[in-house]
Amino acid sequence: MPHGGHHDDDSEVAAYTLPVLIPSRVLPLLHDLAQQMVQAGHQQLLLQIYKETRSFVLEESLTKLGVEKLSKEDVQRMQWEVLEAKIGNWIHFMRIAVKLLFAGERQVCDQIFQGFDSLSDRCFAEVTVSSVSMLLSFGDAIARSKRSPEKLFVLLDMYEIMRELHTEIETIFKGKACLEIRDSAMGLTKRLAQTAQETFGDFEEAVEKDATKTAVQDGTVHPLTSYVINYVKFLFDYQATLKQLFLEFGNGDDSNSQLASVTMRIMQALQNNLDGKSKQYRDPALTHLFLMNNIHYMVRSVRRSEAKDLLGDDWVQRHRRIVQQHANLYKRTAWTKILQTSSAQGLTSSGGGSLEGGNSSGVSRGLLKERFKMFNMQFDELHQRQSQWTVPDTELRESLRLAVAEVLLPAYRSFLKRFGPLVENGKNPQKYIKYTAEDLERLLGELFEGKSMNEPRR
User: Fold this and answer.
1) Is 360 a residue whose pLDDT tops 80?
2) How buried is 336 (Cβ within 10 angstroms: 0-12 exposed, 13-18 middle, 19+ buried)?
3) What pTM, to 2 d.p., does this model score?
């Protein structure tokens, strides 16, 4: 999952004091010695001795630091957690190598070969080429390794460090002799950017096509939804880097609008997938509850994050309306049938729904008892089933219970007031009038708690 511990827009700013690689009193002596060897025509020998001595010291310093030689195959075989830690170390090693070791080595080289600029550049290139290659090859192996969504954040971290060090690399590795080293560093930066962009594209596609069969039985927020939303939140920690990446390697559009459109596409891909997942439910009311929960989670998360500025108020308002639509559809689908049961329709001898002056004499008591029994049975079934469903957001849960209560309780109260006395005057009234309106209100308060089947009622 997304990579933690990320510093926001600014790179780490620290003062680096160059290490003393060779004591300053020795440097003038070495400079004189180098001058004499060049004048005596032993330039090649000087180059060889200098290269062997200094490159060995430099590689040893990197090894002590913890830099390893790893091939692409080694990287492919590694567990993701191990690899993630190694990438974190690599970022640290790159910073130390460029700002301290290579910069210090350059300083020594320039002092010893002062007056022989092209020789200084050649010596420095030969001393550092193998160490630079050891560091860059790891970055390259990551950039070329199999793409997966969780790698996006480390790729961006790596791209970020390469950009941060770009000016220093250009300065330290100046001159014609270091051209290949400069090019390979730039090549890695571009490759990391390209892989990051491709990984981004893969993620969008993976979200759309995610085929996990894990249906959430209780209609709650699907693991895919929380995963994608977390992912998008992490993206916003990297927005400066992403904008830079779009600027350099994008299609020329404004980097802000590119980031917005990518985020919108990811959110749309998630919605498309959730629509597909919602069709797994046999009960259409649960389909709407599931979509309501998941889209509400998306909206709430966006409103609480920087994504709100990018996606805009329109997006938020549009999706809030979708949440409301699903809430209304749930209510209609789940409760219409029981509302018909608690209406006067079909009870009068004339078949009409109105009874003059509230007189119930035209009603068959047998029919009425049947109607009360049917209401009890339907309510028990709805209560049992929907107590197992979940609405994880407290506010949404309360407002949904209230919405149900607002249609059910007045209908039941009026039905009870009108027809209750007829049944109460007969035999075993408690067999038919099982609930008061207050009982129903209390039981509606138990809906959407995600209870298991055998949990007792409160």
Assistant:
1) no
2) exposed
3) 0.80
